[in-house]
Amino acid sequence: MTTTDATRLTGLDAALAETTDALFALQRPDGSWEGRLSASPGATADVLIAMHLADPVGCRDLIERGLAFLLRTQGADGGWGDDVDTEATLNGTALSVAALALIAPDAAAEQISRGWARVEQFGGAEAVRDVERCSLAVLVHFYLVLAGLMSNEGLLRVPIELALLPAPLRRKLTFAMPTAMAWGLMCAELLPAGRARAAINRAATPPAIAYLEGLVGFEGPDGGFVESPMMSANVCIGLTLAGLRPDIVRHCLKYFRATIKPEGAWAVTRDLEVDATNFITAGMQHVGLGADPRVAKAVRWIRAAQRDEDFIWTGAPPGGWGWGLPSGWPNSGNTGDAVIAIAGDGHDVRDEQVRRGAQWLLDQQNYDGSWSCFAQVGRLATMDPSFAMVGKARSPKVLYGPCAVMSAEAVSALGLSGMCPPGDPRLTAAYRWFAKVQHPDGGIDNKWYLGRTAGTGSVLRALADVGLAGSPVARRCISWLRLTQNSDGGWGDALGPGRSTVEETAMAMLGLCAAGVDPAEAMPSRGAGWLVEHRGPDHLWRPSLLGVYFLELLYRHDHTANGYALQALARYRELVRRGGTTSGAFARPPWTATPDPGKTV
């Protein structure tokens, strides 16, 4: 080891000690981490409208707090973004204006006027009606009609006949489906209908209600629809205006009270506690703290969060993990990360929970070798049903389709758990899909984060985890990351050229370290330096607005930043110690075969 390496390790050791201490201080008594999502003006406006329509008296205290949040977070340009102190968006601005105009038209008259002026700058009513410019056009237009700011000309009907679709198509709407069912019931009740339409409405109403009832049963008394205040608000509004199921409406109102944030606002979804605990636990294991009782408690919590029932709403089998409790939907990303964390605790597929989680991933693999988030996509179920809700197909913007990050998490889990040895045909199919979607310059898109860095770094890490660090796809990923490193040493294309973020820098570094790049090279050394230097006074990192929730709504998640950055620095330290090899107990578990690093598919 050179003097330079020793100096570098000393600095990394100190940084990791400070960061792990800070994270342990945030660990909850049950072993998990909260995973705080940013407050969303758009989600807050949606919830306010729901409470105002359903129970304005009983929810008066919550409504007042939410209105105060919107009033103090309006931007200097009159708009609202998807988060506070971020660039205004048409979705965030129009939703906030609608809530203020509906609930406090006199008290907030000046703010409404400024907000509507910002909507006009986005293109006004014409832009609101255009699903290409306003991704939440169905919601936004309707709320502005309720508030008296737009006419109902061009108002889109949400067709209740979605409840009659064959299950493979209905499942592809994934977490849009609860909104579709409730708003379909509302449209059936409120909008004019001829004889044929009335017959369709009568036929579709019972299965639509049964769908919502079933989800309430899955959620239990404390859950929300899709574990989301925003989706729960949509269900509450639809059923309230349809005059149906006041019991489900009360269920939603109870959920709003349970999920309000200290600042008086709501996030697009409940906090991502499973994500947070998975990410941080894996980071602690990479640091070398896997035997620490606090990490062992986190692993036990992850085990307890595994779902034991079929999830009929997406067709998923038992054995998966969702993003939060009690009712996050099982999905490929959380399941892959949970399997990785349990495997990092020293367990392979001989462990029943690891085996079930890995089998869940295999059962959910798409026909083309990829993975989507929630639902498996088969050869015959390729139609995009979202056109029925917005008047045209929006395949690039819906989230049921394959995702590089989700696929990468699944591949890593299957390899590190020992479920799929090198050369397994399921991994070969995944590799071929990565090769298919990789751009000629080596970058790879994904659906759940902005930009290409997240997809490219995640795929590189996954390929290295299954012994394909020397494959053509991996080499092109490395080349792309080399060419796109920013001048400050970080990575990031999500927020614009040259704007490095913690999440993207960490994901790039994870891929490079897993692939075994030379730690003495400037590229990984500068990336690690950027991460160390960009911690806050609390030794943790600040998240960026690059997570994609649904139809272009964005969010920030504190422990996506902290967990991935911790993993990246720990894996870089291991790379330095081993002189550029990645053969560690965690990076290459003893139960997996050691493949030829130069092998290609």
Automatic annotation (TrEMBL):
Annotated metabolic or biological route of this protein: Secondary metabolite biosynthesis; hopanoid biosynthesis
Xref: Gene3D superfamilies: 1.50.10.20
Keyword Repeat set for record: yes
Domain Squalene cyclase C-terminal: residue ranges: 332-573
Pfam families: SQHop_cyclase_C, SQHop_cyclase_N
Keywords from the named record: Repeat
Domain Squalene cyclase N-terminal: 17-167
Similarity field: Belongs to the terpene cyclase/mutase family.
Protein's name in the database: Prenyltransferase/squalene oxidase repeat-containing protein
Organism per entry: Paractinoplanes rhizophilus
